Amino acid sequence: MNKKLHIKKGDMVYVNAGESKGKTGRVLSVKPKEDRAIVEGVNMVSKHTKPNSKNPQGGIIKQEAAIHVSNLMVVDPTTGKPTKIGRRMGENGKLVRYAKKSGEEIK
Q: Among 8, 82, 84, 101, which one is most buried in terms of CB atoms within 10 A?
């Protein structure tokens, strides 16, 4: 069964808790089973890598780690501020997401 989350890949989100609090970024991927998402430039961790064909030198690289979706809020497309998300029936009879602050539909 698919789990419905308030964020999707490609959304602009605001981090409201944790070490990266106050940052915004684009969602790179969503992991519904773990209730986590990877956000561009947020929750950066250092990863030690062995030398390989992609990185022949090896060493320490910085990359994004997953962050829990409860710590993320979608940014309203009209105001640019974080907002809650609601669902309602669209014109074509499908559920669409909308920003609760402005009522604007989120693509």
A: 82
Contact 75, 81 (CB under 8 A): yes
11 and 26 in contact (C-beta within 8 Å)?
A: yes
What topology does CATH give the domain 12-75?
A: SH3 type barrels. (2.30.30)
Tell me the three state secondary structure of residue 69. helix
Residue pair 66/38 in contact (Cβ under 8 Å)? The answer is yes
Q: Would you kindly state where each structural domain of the chain is located, as residue ranges? A: 12-75
- Residue 25 CA to residue 75 CA, distance in Å, equals 9
Q: What is the 3-state secondary structure (H, E, C) of 58-78?
A: CEEEEEECCEEHHHEEEECCC
Count of C-beta atoms within a 10 Å radius of residue 72: 27
SS3 assignment, position 70 = helix
- At 104 the pLDDT is 87
The two structure tokens encoding residue 90: 């669209």
3-class DSSP state of 105:
strand
